[in-house]
Design goal:
Length: about 100
């Protein structure tokens, strides 16, 4: 089965994976608004030094790695999925801020 073919969801879900195929698999792109920063007091090695933000994308709330340095209230482009981790190879993540949008 090629990577461009649909993937099966859990029984009873009846949904297909949607998005674009990146260098290492599926990647979904979303636009959202940063609502705040997430602070870690402890974590796996390297996690406490990273910056994470919460983003509202439609009715969903996601937590994403922020290598860009966005501020609360900014509209951002978010990558999520298998390939998002390849954008930041030094730390395993599945949601990454790609950049701030220009209004």
């Amino acid at each position: 089965m090629g990577t461009a073919e649909k993937t099966e969801a859990a029984p009873g879900m009846g949904r297909r994976k949607r998005g674009i195929i990146g260098p290492k698999g599926w990647m979904h792109m979303m636009i959202g608004t940063v609502i705040g920063q997430v602070f870690l007091s402890r974590g796996v090695p390297g996690a406490a030094e990273k910056r994470f933000v919460q983003v509202r994308c439609g009715c969903a709330l996601v937590t994403a790695l922020d290598p860009v340095g966005v501020s609360s209230g900014e509209r951002v482009l978010v990558a999520a999925g298998d390939s998002a981790g390849s954008l930041c190879p030094e730390f395993p993540v599945d949601t990454v801020i790609l950049g701030a949008l220009t209004e």
